[in-house]
Specification:
Chain lengths: 296, 296, 296, 296
């Protein structure tokens, strides 16, 4: 059994503490929200851990994570280790690792997949960093990952940054898969040839080529709301989809599906985009085509 | 000077009659609307023309055009000729030509581009059919096409159907070009790095790579409405864009730009598409992500 | 235990006969290849079945299936039933059903998914037709579908045609999912941030959002060929992807992901497409850009 | 008549010197290639200009331009002005302007469009910077821009960076337009319904909606090579297309057409992409589909 400091007890971190404790590990959690926190401050958290310490960060990517790493670099000691399990951009990892390495503190980046289901199912983990550091943290990873062969729910992806890189690409693929299901659902709904759309989708769960966890979730959603009309078709995107597309650009890799999935989300949040107003204006100019006037 | 029967005096046909008459030709027009019609019926129209007759059809594609051809096949005589100048699907042309050929009536299909500007600028023409028939109708084509070298505003594209095929592809390209300008406009609007978007677009009219008639029309639209917000971004599509994509499918030709332009129009007419409701539902299922509830 | 005539003993039909017999059903198979056929002709096959007969067709879609249905309409008797389990276009089903209904022969269309794995895993089934006909064939469907709850591997999708419609959309989704994984794989390969790409992909099999049967197959392929360079990136497409895109056009449904996946396959089979030669020619014209001359 | 220092006498700079001199301006040019250079060094160039000097940089974007600006900041004096006419990323402009402003040297960024045709036709110009600086350089801009109304070939787009931003978007649109023509060309070639593809495209030059300079160039290319098969379909991309897509990402603007055009270029340079090898491998796994083995 090992001891872990865990910073950030939101939806993900809270569940991870539960899963780790259920596996018999000691977790000292810190969150700004005192209702869920085990400690009063990062300083307090560090003081409650025995050296060499492992501290897992699970706070929002970007500035919050970077600031937490900086603060930890001043609190931890040589031989300790920090793991960033958040959704950081992989380029942040090198900065974090260098900052900590200057004080002989180790660093791993860990992409974590599985959402709210991870508490019970386990989390898919992709880790970047030195093999020796990965080895030290393996009891933690083993507790967080799903049951079954380790290599089916955990990978040591490469050097620092590779874990978040793998997670970024994972999410890019996820965008594409979700959009594929979404287009199929819309086609079934629109054509009305299939009478019982939820039944068809439920019937894809076994034996078919498209069987997948996302399909299972779609079935679950349709069980609750058979036409999916309780929700608006307004879809946020997190950083990973955008970063994946940036990587496609940087590496000259065609990514038509992933970009289409991302753009569909952008478009879902627009009403009467400037682009389509321009197309309407052009049609109006050359053809005298009927157009919709605002308020008309 | 030649004589022409012209069926259909809507936005396009009406202007074409004007242009033909201005060129000195005799046009007998028929339209269901007696206010613009020169004749009371197709029978009357045919009786007013000297054999061998040329009758130009300019009515909506599909059933209306097919029905007009059928009616004309019963009214015209061997040696006469029908020209379909509407936006018919190219597969209709073979049917029309065969029907008329059985009575030794000639047939040409003619794609016509230029919109409401054609009356003054002339119309771009793409013609399919036998060379001898094209030759007979050339005075008409010469009057309708723009000034300048004939081969820059007119083409004999091939056999029956080739004229409408060329027009279909022309429109597919047009969809892509319009969407390209539209995306550029939206990017300029969104980023706010460029302060005077209409001035930039106006300044592209000479010397640049993107100079084009569509750009001129965009400038015109921006002169009237600098942010293009009098119109809704709701864009219809006519058959040609869809048929172009069908041709891409049938010929295994990748058409990512033309399809993207068509899909952008489809999406512009949707509110909260089923697809994006499905994506929202999936995110909700796996991540407990914040979503917008209807009415929420 | 029931009795079934099965026409077409290729890769799919052969395995289905195995699975049905393993479940205790009596299968009389016919194939043009005498090495695998149980009978010498369709006539012979029909004579070996007791009325009311059920005959399952598993031959190539289009003309071969249509011809088989026609032949069966002359051999079967009132009260018999035909099931088309091939990859027919859903519009063929109405024609088949009407032809057979004239002789009081029933008809079901059944989309079958699962490939070569179906023999052991069972096949995902989507059925169109009358509920009473579905009921009669249920022992067959139960033997072919995977173990587990019936509704997770079988659906009665709607009237005649709905089964193949559901299968068509299933395959459209499949195209999108495959392309999503493919783009992710290429990005991992290209960027070289992740050192062990197969390990990362293997590690996605449990706990992650992208876990799926296609992912399992990708892991299997990478186990055999870690850089996937034994195969050429030349990908055929079957009818269903194209038909799905046609449905998107017909129903004005944006399908950017499914179309992108289809176009990627088209492009994979081209070398120096006319389109890209045109782009190269344009760049050459306006910019004097360096271009590759053929043989240069 | 004004005096201008011009750094970089490649394809673009050389022609611009010609056009400026033809307009009666004094141009002192510098290039590393002594055969075309008027001076031996930047220092020599600066010494040959009367204060307040205007120096136009026309060297490759990125490091070469940044280095030239740095060097000029040490050679020029307060009241002088630098204009970057290259294809710099707009974010470089702020850096350049700040560096020069520290020495009271002015800075303008100028997007230049028109390629090798600009010498005779004039260049489309988009300028970013202070109005007073724009005013000072106006004689230069007026000589470089096309004849006709100034505002149709020149724009003051906004503050520093806005000129290159406008040029970047211009190029993004250009990518989309080129790909639209390219897809149309390929469809015409593939379907073979149109017998004389070059004639059809030539016939679009007047009266049609797609008439444009790019179309004129396509006609020119087809005049030289009617099937465009002297060139390989291998297409480079410059920075602007990629940056435009980055801007789409950063501003959450859907850019399906521009991205498709960029990805088509990426794909044109690949043979058997990793993505399509992955799709082939998946099909092989689930279906035992025929695939092409390398060397097979």
């Amino acid at each position: 059994m090992v001891q872990l400091g865990l910073i950030g007890l939101g939806k993900m971190g809270f569940n991870m503490r539960e899963r780790l404790r259920a596996a018999g590990h000691e977790v000292v959690g810190y969150d700004r929200n005192p209702d869920v926190s085990d400690t009063t401050s990062l300083e307090d958290l560090v003081s409650k851990l025995d050296a060499p310490r492992i501290v897992w960060i699970m706070v929002p990517a970007g500035e919050p994570t970077r600031a937490t790493v900086t603060e930890l670099s001043n609190l931890l000691a040589a031989g300790d280790m920090v793991i960033d399990g958040g959704n950081s951009k992989y380029t942040d990892d090198k900065l974090n690792a260098d900052l900590l390495a200057a004080k002989s503190i180790g660093y791993l980046d860990c992409g974590v997949s599985g959402g709210v289901w991870g508490k019970d199912n386990g989390y898919g983990l992709m880790v970047g960093g030195a093999a020796s550091d990965v080895e030290k943290a393996m009891p933690i990873f083993d507790a967080l990952r799903p049951d079954g062969p380790r290599e089916e729910g955990f990978s040591h992806a490469g050097d620092v940054g590779a874990g978040h890189y793998a997670k970024m690409i994972h999410n890019g693929i996820e965008y594409g898969m979700m959009q594929a299901f979404a287009e199929g659902f819309e086609l079934l709904e629109a054509a009305k040839v299939v009478k019982d759309v939820p039944a068809v989708i439920k019937g894809w769960q076994r034996g078919t080529v498209v069987r997948s966890w996302l399909l299972d979730l779609l079935v679950r959603a349709l069980d609750e709301d058979p036409e999916l009309d309780d929700l608006e078709g307004y879809v946020e995107d997190s950083g990973e989809g955008r970063w994946t597309l940036e990587e496609a650009i940087n590496n000259a890799v065609p990514a038509p599906v992933i970009s289409a999935a991302l753009f569909a989300r952008f478009a879902s949040r627009q009403e009467h985009s400037a682009a389509m107003r321009a197309v309407a204006a052009l049609r109006n100019q050359f053809g005298g085509h009927a157009v919709k006037k605002v308020g008309g």
